[in-house]
Design brief:
Helix content is 20%, strand content 35%. It is α+β, with helices and mostly antiparallel strands. It folds into three domains: 80 residues, Pseudouridine synthase; 133 residues, Pseudouridine synthase (2-Layer Sandwich), CATH 3.30.2350.10; 59 residues, Archaeosine Trna-guanine Transglycosylase, Chain: A, domain 4 (Roll), CATH 2.30.130. The strands form four sheets. Strands 1, 2, 3, 4, 7, 10, 11, 12 and 13 form a nine-stranded mixed β-sheet that branches. The protein has a five-stranded mixed β-sheet with strand order 14-16-17-18-15. Strand 16 and strand 17 form a beta hairpin. Helix 3 crosses helix 5. The protein is globular.
Length: 296
């Protein structure tokens, strides 16, 4: 099997638990997911099977869309509704204009401090593990990209927003920092991932309907995903295919920038052979998915 499952992660399950559901059906095939969702979150969880696990770094870099619910006037040690919640006295309700103006401060490349209860490593240990042991955790800010934030509905204290962002963005941190900016506190009380890696929520699949017999028919083609994510696509002739199978570069006469990612497809465009990059004017394979028996 070589492809990606678009699964709809249910609330209360970890991403690893969902991967394990699939693992029991395809063992010993290698697999992994492209982007963790917190247990309280639901929505699109891409799970890569077989050689498609090599696509995980590419898929993780893709833009993601979330529908999130924030509750203002409260804070939490986890920055969401699963933690210890504290009420924050406020003098007056925040207007929608004030909330929207504050939200737009988080659009662009921003320095964001991850939640203390997160999987970020501190001296080799997960931050959440240290926090649960009562140890002090101090995390450094990192740059993340938020492309847009749109208010879907607002009625104090509940705010519903749609956020389009890059990899590594913590929606919980936006809720927390929005509350700080408004001076009223804030936490994330709900989260749905609407899209990730070009996979959409309406097309996602309940993991519980998967069986060993029907799983293959639900796989999304790696060719489709690569076409969505890479601007440079090269269809390989027979001689090109042999070189790509050996990891050797191909000559390139296009205008692609140095370092631009490249997808190498079969001549008919139906098979993903490799992904790589533009290197010194050549197309350099990096991850090879298919090696012809006579190419080595």
């Amino acid at each position: 099997m070589f492809g990606v499952l678009n699964l709809n992660k249910p609330r209360g399950k970890t991403s690893r638990q969902i991967v394990n559901v699939v693992k029991r059906l395809v063992h010993p095939l290698k697999l992994g997911h492209a982007g963790t969702l917190d247990p309280m979150a639901t929505g699109v969880l891409p799970v890569c099977l077989g050689r498609a696990t090599k696509l995980i770094p590419l898929l993780q870099k893709s833009a993601k869309v979330y529908d999130a619910e924030f509750t203002l006037g409260q804070t939490s040690d986890t920055d969401d509704a699963t933690g210890v919640i504290s009420e924050v006295p406020v003098a007056a309700e925040q207007t929608q204009d004030a909330v929207d103006a504050a939200l737009q401060k988080f659009v662009g490349v921003i320095a964001q401090v991850p939640p203390v209860y997160s999987a970020v490593k501190v001296n080799g240990h997960r931050a959440y593990a240290k926090a649960r042991r009562g140890e002090g955790v101090e995390l450094k800010a990192k740059n993340v990209t938020v492309f847009s934030i749109e208010i879907l509905r607002y009625s104090w204290p509940v705010l519903q927003v749609r956020i389009t962002c890059g990899s590594g963005t913590y929606i919980r941190s936006i809720a927390r920092d929005l509350g700080k900016r408004l001076g009223c506190g804030g936490l994330m009380s709900g989260l749905i991932r609407c899209s990730s890696a070009g996979l959409m929520l309406p097309d996602s699949l309940d993991p519980n309907v998967l069986t060993a017999e029907n799983l293959a028919q639900h796989l999304v083609s790696p060719v489709r995903l690569v076409r969505q994510h890479l601007n440079v696509i090269h269809r390989c002739s027979t001689s090109d295919r042999l070189l790509v199978g050996q990891g050797r570069p191909l000559s390139h006469e296009g205008e692609a920038k140095e370092g631009a990612p490249v997808g190498f497809l079969s001549e008919d465009g139906c098979e993903l052979l490799a992904i790589g990059e533009v290197k010194r004017g050549h197309l350099q394979p990096r991850s090879v998915f298919h090696v012809d028996q006579f190419s080595t």
